[in-house]
Amino acid sequence: MSDELGRVRQLWHLLEPVHAVLYYAPEAFEEAAALGYAVDERWPSYFAWRAAPLGEAGADRVAEVFYSFSPRMVGAYVPAVWAVASPDAVLAARGRAVDRAYRKLLGEAVAAPGTAEAAALLRRVAEAAGPADRPMAAANAALPRPDEPHLAVWHAATVLREHRGDGHLAALAHAELDPVEALVSFAAVGAARPEVFGSRGWDEGEWRAALERLQKRGLVAGDGTATEAGRALRAEVERRTDEAAAGPWRVLAAEERERLAELLGPLWVAAVGSGLLPSENTLGIGKV
Questions:
Q1: pLDDT at 241 > cutoff 60
Q2: pLDDT at 286
Q3: Which of 61, 79, 118, 168 is the most buried (most CB within 10 A)?
Q4: Region class of 85: left (phi > 0), else alpha (psi between -120 and 50), else beta
Q5: Cα distance between residue 78 and residue 62, in whole Å
Q6: DSSP notation for 208-251
Q7: Does the pLDDT at position 192 exceed 70?
Q8: Are the CB atoms for 215 and 222 separated by under 8 Å?
Q9: Which one-letter DSSP state was computed for residue 220?
């Protein structure tokens, strides 16, 4: 991996927890409950928060752009989430949830010069993330940009993580990995335990069938671990994903990327140190 792609990947690792706090923060569940969503599980609000930039998208569209979720699981929540609250109402509540969660996590640091500096750098990168073939990134980028630094950080982090995710789907398609095969092959290289990927709603039969298809391709061994060819394919997927994500970051000079990594450190520590985020995730952060 080149130094540039390594830095791009590091910045993603720093930004992902900053974005993901939304899906776990108590303040977000309170805002979701106020809208009328059930909060005994996180999925009603997750699908609402993440899909709202798309408007009243149907299940097929959400399954397409979220990709790794079983269409059956998506259909259990979408479009029902829009009968509870409109996308505009969800987006307003999402902003309140991020504001409240960040103020609790960061305290006075929400208005610190470092947060404002990080927001300014991230805004430049997010504005350089082209919308072509990036549906989730484009939908978030089209939303009004917040002025307050901590909200601007979250907004830009969201645009960039969705931009990366959109590019990742293209890399998976190039590797001819369908949604469940993408998860099985990722589990096979040790990104997370198969049980963790169970959160995406595929049943045992679907998982087993995907495993058999990957075995026929010589990508997975009989014990469920990746073969050499399987590891090489997943490495190629990650390389293509990093390359597709790198473009916007080139608007920053190398020293600015270094500075941004330094500025994001305290935000990352606050997010990870909050105890809100799961220690094992479906993105393979910390594993691959």
A1: yes
A2: 52
A3: 118
A4: beta
A5: 8
A6: HHHHHHHHHTTSB-TTS-B-HHHHHHHHHHHHHHHHHHHGGGGG
A7: yes
A8: yes
A9: B
Q: How far apart are CA 241 and CA 239, in angstroms?
A: 5
Which residue type does 14 have? L
Task: Locate 122 and state its tokens.
Answer: 């991230």
Tell me: pLDDT of 247 over 50.
yes
Asked if 61 and 79 touch (Cβ cutoff 8 Å), the reply is no
Give the integer Cα–Cα distance in Å for 163 and 257. 18
CA 162 to chain centre: 6
pTM score > 0.85 for this model? yes
Name, in order, each residue with C-beta under 8 angstroms of 287's C-beta and a sequence gap of 6 or more. 190, 191, 192
Amino acid letter, residue 83: A
pLDDT at 164: 96
Distance CA 136, CA 160 (A): 10
Give the integer Cα–Cα distance in Å for 136 and 86. 18
Cα–Cα dist 210/204, whole Å? 10
Dihedral (C-alpha) 98, 100, 105, 111: value to the nearest 10 degrees? 90
285 within 8 A of 196, measured Cβ to Cβ = no
pLDDT of residue 113: 96
Residue 287 reports pLDDT greater than 50: no
- Contact, 175 vs 236, CB < 8 A? yes
Backbone angles phi, psi at 175, to 5 degrees: -80, 0
Q: Using CA atoms, how far apart are residues 216 and 102, in angstroms rounded to an integer?
A: 47
What's the mean pLDDT in 126-138? Answer: 95
First-to-final CA distance of the chain: 13
d(CA 126, CA 159): 6
| Dihedral angle sign, alpha carbons of residues 105, 86, 197, 159 | negative
Q: Which residue has the tokens 């006075």?
A: 108
Q: Which helix (H) or strand (E) holds 81?
A: helix 80-84
Domain extent listing, the chain: 3-273
pLDDT, tens digit, 9 for 90 and up, residues 50-69: 999 999 999 999 999 999 99
